[in-house]
Design brief:
Length: 650
């Protein structure tokens, strides 16, 4: 029994600990029935040759690995049956690790490396920074806080590792071959540091194969072939006043954890900026495609709806010919008398018969072919189309077969350029002179893209006698007062005309139903465009997953270091999911900007574009969700790694 045994309960205690590994069909025992007690304040060297089991013993002591059988107590707490997060808590509260190869984060500064254990302990940022600067100053690295590992010598890197081990003020320091990668001078400095730490009352466990290094310890445990062969107090044997384990601090909440994870993610992504950029490109293209495609689809939909709305949605259009047969002027089944009868129905404000044809117009030396439509005075109300200049013809004009015309803006612009006032002028329609009494307000493109302003409107009676011939019409347009009753009104018109004609030689179409059909078709088109774009976003997500899997493989040792310093499974999971989310969030923002810019560029070339907030939010949200979904599998793989396996990775 060592002098420290008199102090009471051991700090660390192993009883009949076996650690075995399976190699093919062979079982290898790295530790075989090991029993060991280490008391507070001791400086213990575990010495043995390569393959003796000393590193396995250190991993068991530091809760980086767990026994295959036997028991291990840390401060009276049996580790048997504890899950990964409970072992992480023990590491965080009890141990500080000093590794032979330093295991510093290459992308982090000295200060940031030292802070890592405190991050997982949930300490506030200000306290972490102050503590890191203080420790680095005590270890002779003042002014080097902002240097990265590749800017420091081997001895300085090991001092950073020592500072990191001390960050949470642990009672036990585990040093695995701490001088193995150092020159003799730096090695002596590190051993002096360990001696000073022991003098402060910390329990030091030193793993080494070097007898000169082991001579600094006060107790020497020799191990060979997985068994402890000797345990003796050296000439320096004296236990210092032990450092007591501190009560556990409340761990950080999710939001600070996410903030730190995002900061570390940005730092990690900068290391392989080219690879990150390629990954970003996939997300950017995917999001931009969704934004642009949906804007094009919405623009096309709005364009069609505007065209139909320009004609009017309160309209019922009666066409000659049986249902399913395209009506034309050659089908003689409707008359103006039918229009007057329809106008007498309930819920019909006005109904006008129409007769159209193509004629050559002439004014002065200008000839122009346009559509000439014969109709009645109720046309402006039925079509919700105002007169901009002059007036519309009246019932008196219709009754008197007046040769008057009201022209559209397109016709007015072609026949009367150079500021000539159209109203009062005479134009020839065919060979018949008509006086222009009005100009219609600009209407724009109608359903199907036809220019509604390219028209000449004349009294129906005049057109039938002097231009068209015959007393039939090729359409009746009825304006419905209450659109909610449009279906009933349509049925009433059908019943009326069947009674008048004694057969169904006409068809009635509702502009509202046409609007619904067009809306459904455009929604389908928009969905198709969005689906095609979403596929590119999916491909970008697969790229994210591939890159994150590569990251996990390349950074396995880093994962081990994080676990050794107290990271829980959730911390590792959060770290790598955050990295994927950061990539996709950046890609989402850039993709939205590119998508909007592309849409605006297409608009300059005459493509109908309508940007709305939901598609933009949807595209951005899908990008972030892609990062979370496709980043989960690599993150889960990283979180499930064993600390000892991860630390052994090259």
């Amino acid at each position: 029994m060592t002098p420290a045994a008199a102090k009471g309960r051991p700090l660390l205690r192993l009883e009949k600990v076996v650690r075995s590994y399976q190699s093919g069909e062979q079982t290898i025992r790295a530790l075989n029935e090991v029993g060991l007690e280490i008391y507070p304040g001791e400086f213990v060297a575990v010495m043995g040759q390569s393959g003796s089991g000393k590193s396995t013993l250190m991993n068991i002591l530091g809760c980086l690995d767990w026994p295959s059988s036997g028991d291990y107590w840390v401060n009276g707490e049996n580790v048997k049956g504890k899950d990964a997060d409970e072992l992480a808590r023990l590491r965080r509260e009890t141990f500080g690790f000093i590794f032979q190869r330093y295991n510093l984060m290459a992308t982090a500064t000295a200060e940031e490396n030292v802070e890592i254990p405190a991050i997982y302990a949930g300490k506030p940022r200000a306290r972490r920074m102050a503590r890191a600067v203080e420790l680095l100053g005590k270890l002779g690295l003042k002014g080097r806080e902002g240097h990265r590992p590749n800017q420091l010598s081997g001895g300085q890197q090991q001092r950073v590792a020592v500072a990191r081990a001390l960050m949470n003020d642990p009672p036990v320091i585990l040093a695995d071959e701490p001088t193995g990668a150092l020159d003799s001078k730096s090695g002596e400095e590190v051993m002096k540091l360990l001696g000073d730490l022991h003098g402060e009352g910390r329990t030091i466990i030193l793993i080494t194969h070097d007898a000169q290094v082991a001579a600094h310890a006060h107790r020497l445990v020799r191990i060979s072939d997985g068994r402890i062969v000797s345990d003796e107090v050296t000439s320096k044997g004296r236990a210092a006043k032990p450092v007591q384990a501190h009560p556990r601090e409340e761990e950080g909440m999710a939001l600070p954890g996410f903030g730190e994870a995002a900061k570390m993610a940005m730092r990690a992504l900068k290391v392989n900026i080219f690879r990150t950029s390629l990954t970003l490109l996939g997300i950017v293209i995917g999001v931009a495609s969704v934004v642009t495609m949906l804007a094009v689809g919405n623009g096309s939909k709005q364009n069609v709806l505007d065209q139909i709305s320009a004609v009017g949605t309160n309209l019922l259009s009666v066409r000659p010919g049986a249902p399913g047969i395209r009506g034309s002027g050659d089908i003689i089944t409707l008359t103006q008398a039918d229009a007057r009868a329809v106008e007498g129905l309930d819920n019909i404000s006005v109904a006008e018969g129409e007769r159209s044809g193509r004629f050559t117009l002439r004014y002065g030396n200008t000839d122009y072919q346009s559509t000439v439509t014969g109709t009645g005075p109720g046309f402006t109300m039925a079509r919700n189309w105002a007169v901009a200049e002059g007036s519309f013809f009246t019932d008196r004009d219709v009754a008197g077969y007046a040769p008057v015309a009201v022209i559209g803006k397109t016709v007015a612009g072609i026949l009367f350029p150079y500021g000539v006032e159209p109203v009062g002028q005479y134009i020839q329609v065919g060979n018949v002179p008509f006086q222009v009494i009005g100009v219609m307000a600009e209407k724009g493109a109608g359903f199907g893209g036809q220019d509604q302003d390219d028209v000449v409107l004349i009294p129906l009676s005049t057109g039938q006698v002097r231009l068209f011939g015959g007393n039939y019409v090729n359409a009746i347009t009825a304006y419905v007062t209450d659109i909610s009753k449009i279906d009933d009104t349509q049925a009433a018109i059908e019943d009326l005309l069947k009674a008048r004609h004694r057969q169904e030689d006409f068809s009635v179409r509702s502009m509202a139903s046409i609007l619904q059909t067009a809306t459904a078709m455009q929604n389908t088109l928009t969905m198709l465009l969005g689906t095609v774009a979403a596929i590119s976003l999916l491909v970008g997500g697969i790229g994210v997953m591939n890159i994150m899997l590569v990251n996990v493989t390349e950074r396995t040792r880093e994962i081990g270091v994080r676990m050794a310093t107290g990271a829980r499974t959730f911390d590792i999971l959060l770290q790598f999911i955050t990295e994927a989310a950061v990539v996709c969030t950046l890609g989402g923002v850039m993709g939205v900007v590119l998508g909007v810019a592309t849409g605006l560029a297409l608009k300059l070339f005459g493509v109908a574009i309508v940007f709305t907030l939901p598609p933009v939010v949807l595209a951005f949200g899908c990008a972030v969700a892609t990062g979370l979904v496709f980043g989960y599998l690599p993150a889960r793989q990283a979180a499930q790694l064993s600390p000892v396996v991860a630390l052994a990775s090259e």
